[in-house]
Amino acid sequence: MKTLLFGLLALLVGSAHAADDARVLAPMPAAAEANLRSEMRASLLALNEILALVAAGQLREAAAVAERELGVSAMGKHRSQPFTARPGPHMPPSMHAIGIDGHRAASEFARVAASGDREQTVAALPTLTAACVACHLGYRLR
Ligand code: HEC
């Protein structure tokens, strides 16, 4: 009985979750999606590296990774590829704007971290993930 109840509960929670999914569907060609996903995984790795460097007090190194991997320097990586392989131009403008804001925020974080001020750098950490969260809560590819 207990397992049955639990199963029912899981089912209810599961379907409520699907019904609550208000994310906008923003599909793109397969090549663009593949590039987006691989860039996303690299961003996740970079984020973890930055957190570890900040925790270890290596602020200038954290600044360098933030600028190189997430900052404005990391924008337009696929510019030389065919149109169908470029994620940015296939995004709705509001989605694309979140992405650009995220790159700018990471560059701003890099500037703060490069100053070597630990307190300000720690205070700026949430600005690194704000765009990830905003875009993931707002959009999906499938
Ligand atoms: C402009 C929008 C946008 C921003 C900004 C963004 N993402 Fe994503 N991300 C997506 C979308 C869309 C998907 C695919 C979701 C789906 O499957 O429908 C995705 C998928 C992912 C995935 C799964 C990749 C895979 O192999 O399937 C990871 C990991 C990820 N994002 C990490 C991040 C991190 C970390 C950040 C911030 C540094 C970030 N993303 C910022 C839009 C964004």
Automatic annotation (TrEMBL):
GO biological process: electron transport chain
Keyword terms: Signal
Signal keyword on record: yes
TM segment ranges: none
Native species: Candidatus Accumulibacter adjunctus
InterPro entries according to UniProt: Cyt_c/b562 (IPR010980), Cyt_c_II (IPR002321)
Signal peptide: 1-18
Protein name: Cytochrome C
Keyword Chloroplast: no
A GO MF term: heme binding
